[in-house]
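Sanity check

After download, print the first record. It should look like this:
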Amino acid sequence: MSNDEQRRSWAEPYKIKMVEPVRIPSEQEREEAIRDAGYNTFLLQSRDVYIDLLTDSGTSAMSDQQWAGMMLGDESYAGSRNFYHLQDAVRHFYGYDFVVPTHQGRGAEHIISKLMIEEGDYIPGNMYFTTTKLHQELAGGTFVDVIIDEAHDPQSEHPFKANVDVGKLSDLINEVGADRIPYVSIATAVNMAGGQPISLSNLKEVRELTQHHGIPIIHDMTRVAENAYFIKTREDEYSNWSIAEIVREICRHTDGATMSAKKDALVNIGGFLAMNDKELFERARNMCVVYEGLHTYGGMAGRDMEALAIGISESVDEDHIHARVGQVQYLGEKIMDAGVPVVHPIGSHGVFLDAKRFLPHLDQDELPAQALAAELYVDSGVRSMERGFVSAGRDKDTDENIHPELELVRLTIPRRVYTQAHMDVVAESVEAVYDRREEIGGLEFVYEPEYLRFFQSRFEKINQQA
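Expected structure tokens:
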């Protein structure tokens, strides 16, 4: 792209042919709604939300081709032709030999954890993700973070903050032994770090080390196309490669993958487990029958598998991925221009507000990110989510609260849903809340479930006079 092209405005590479009306609740309605939801944005009703940036999972807009594909659903219980279309797409675009469909990504995480992890195992990875880590722990394993230190520093400008610290990984292998490490968990566009990418050069280095020790790599490929975009724009060796070629190259350096197709692949439900090991595949599809459904649908309708097969193709389209990540960058730049502290550099799927610096008067035990997400909703009806103390949960051995370095609020942008005007509204709301940040008080738990507490916990405001 020339300098002139970079300076010119861009627009979304699609036309809008259907709209979904939304309501804008009044400030009083928003205050009542967040209080009734226990100050947890996950517990808000969607009818009370104006701009929904809670997640990019299953919230994207499907294309006309995907909707057309939905009409071609083969709902046969066994041997649906849509499964074979999905299988062909996975083989063509990702290069994995075998695919087991699941109802969504955590179904794939569950199966691979039960198959590969034994009690006392260690699973190193480039930062945890909530459901992935829980499945690993429930299978008897212990997650070990081997991401580079820069990933835990929101102000670091490192271009590939999802890189593995190969020294940390090597030390773990030497300490516990390769036979106690069933696989290395590598995520592309790491969510909890702020949508930060891993470089191909680093992945290749990890691959060399793991092959030397006979340890497979399982790839969390939920946002692999977005990661490929950053490789193309930040790693000179791949600047002339297509997004599709980079995606295939990433997958080539792994042994299997879990996929939540509700993100990159542009569908509202679905996922899969993919791999190259035929024996592991036979065990996985047998377990699929137990937990998900028959191995040729795995919890998805035929029409959903057809939409997914098409979505995989669309996810690596150059215009699409440029606009998708570009919209995130646009929002991030507007918020940074207002002086609001965010995770640097801006990631792939959302803008992450740094709640520690946004609300420095609140201790982490006062849940600054949770309080900020609630306050942002009251200000404008924009729904975001917490990614910090609440999401980190408790230590599985001591039951003590984990205090992560990153205390963030995620403004997650669905694909092909909102316009730049919506992004302007969001940026203005964030700035308005930042201007009165000293007025924002903390929260405390009043209900905490056993697992994945950020989904269902309830909170109340701390009495600042106490």
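If your output differs, re-run the checksum step. Summary of this record's structure: The domain at 64-315 is CATH 3.40.640.10 (Aspartate Aminotransferase; domain 2).
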